[in-house]
Design a protein that fits this description.
Length: about 350
């Protein structure tokens, strides 16, 4: 079979995205809106988006920052805390909030207000299960005694398994999975558990962080893992299972914050997300599985309609910008300055 020169498929969605706020939001939103019909917008602003009222205000700021002519729908989430009142869930549902996000306190960027002990949230999780509001999890334990590379696998035993047992009907998305343990867990966990996969975790193993010197733009959380894990993630993404779907976790940080003695966690991939996923799927000989992963499985799990319209990727080399303006600062895309094989048709 000859390699295809173009690929047209149902307009996709991004089921895990950081848009930030203010000038940063204005800088990154057009890239995402070009690529995706909708995106699940993460609530880890400073301060975090913990109430329905805050989520609605944030949504209005996103829509106000959207360039004219780009149809894009932000799907809003709330940041779960130890003190999220169960009564907030009905309000959230009525306002169109689709999910709450669990950040174990201290696990990642802007997670200081996160959950200190999941049992403190049980009344709220009960309300979510009842109302059909999803739980999205950053699946890493924060115990400093646990090796950083093991924190996701340990989270499965310490948090996911008890959570699934106690809330069997709650829909849970294990976000940005990075290990063979998580891929296997989700594959076997039944109809109410799904996972998002980033392009960078499908393309790279942890060597990428250390290629000829420390590469801060490849540092994200959960951190890139060994090759055996990357292969398991690719197998899950290309398996055709409808419980694995696209979530870029595009997480912009100004270059000065990345190229610093303490580098913030996050890879910015929004400008070339579909191109990067196509590269990963093609390398696995599975371009035919990209549409399900990018456009069909996510809506099915969230109970939302599939987008109308299509996007087209062309086999047409182009060079990703080295950096783009980001408010007063600049922002470097992952692979900035490099040539990509696929290009989204304008
Ligand atoms: N993925 C990251 O490395 N960073 C994210 C937070 C997150 O998704 O964990 C961010 O907000 O910068
Ligand atoms: Zn996360
Ligand atoms: Zn994220």
């Amino acid at each position: 079979m000859t390699a295809p020169t173009s690929l047209t498929f149902t307009r996709p969605d991004d089921w895990h995205l950081h848009l930030r706020d203010g000038a940063a939001l204005a800088a990154v939103l057009p890239g995402t809106a070009r690529q995706f019909g909708r995106a699940i917008v993460m609530p880890n602003l400073r301060p975090p988006v913990t109430t329905t009222a805050q989520a609605m205000d944030y949504k209005a700021r996103i829509l106000a920052a959207l360039p004219a002519g780009l149809g894009f729908e932000p799907l809003m989430t709330l940041y779960l805390t130890d003190n999220t009142p169960p009564e907030e869930i009905a309000r959230a549902k009525a306002a169109g909030v689709v999910a709450l996000k669990l950040y174990p306190a201290g696990a990642t960027t802007n997670s200081d207000a996160g959950v200190t002990d999941i049992r403190k949230t049980y009344k709220t999780l009960e309300a979510m299960q009842r109302e059909g509001v999803l739980l999205l999890v950053h699946g890493e334990v924060t115990d400093p005694a646990i090796d950083l590379f093991d924190r996701e696998a340990v989270f499965i035993d310490q948090v996911m398994i008890p959570l699934r047992r106690d809330f069997p009907e709650l829909k849970v998305v294990f976000e940005h999975i990075t290990t063979k343990e998580a891929a296997q867990y989700v594959a076997e966990a039944g109809a109410h558990t799904a996972a998002t996969l980033t392009a960078h975790h499908l393309l790279y193993n942890r060597n990428a962080i250390f290629m000829g010197g420390l590469r801060p733009h490849y540092y994200c959380l959960p951190v890139l893992k060994r090759e055996v894990h990357r292969q398991a993630l690719v197998a899950a993404a290309t398996s055709g299972s409808d419980r694995f779907f696209l979530g870029t976790d595009s997480a912009p940080h100004a270059s000065v914050m990345k190229e610093a003695s303490v580098c913030g966690a996050g890879c910015f991939t929004a400008l070339s997300a579909l191109e990067l996923y196509a590269e990963a799927f093609e390398a696995a000989g599975a371009l035919d599985k990209l549409e399900g992963f990018a456009s069909l499985h996510g809506p099915a799990f969230y109970g939302l309609p599939v987008n109308t319209g299509t996007v087209t990727l062309l086999r047409q080399p182009w060079t990703l910008p080295e950096s783009i303006p980001f408010g007063d600062a600049s922002l470097k895309p992952l692979r900035g300055g490099e040539t990509l094989a696929w290009q989204l048709q304008a």
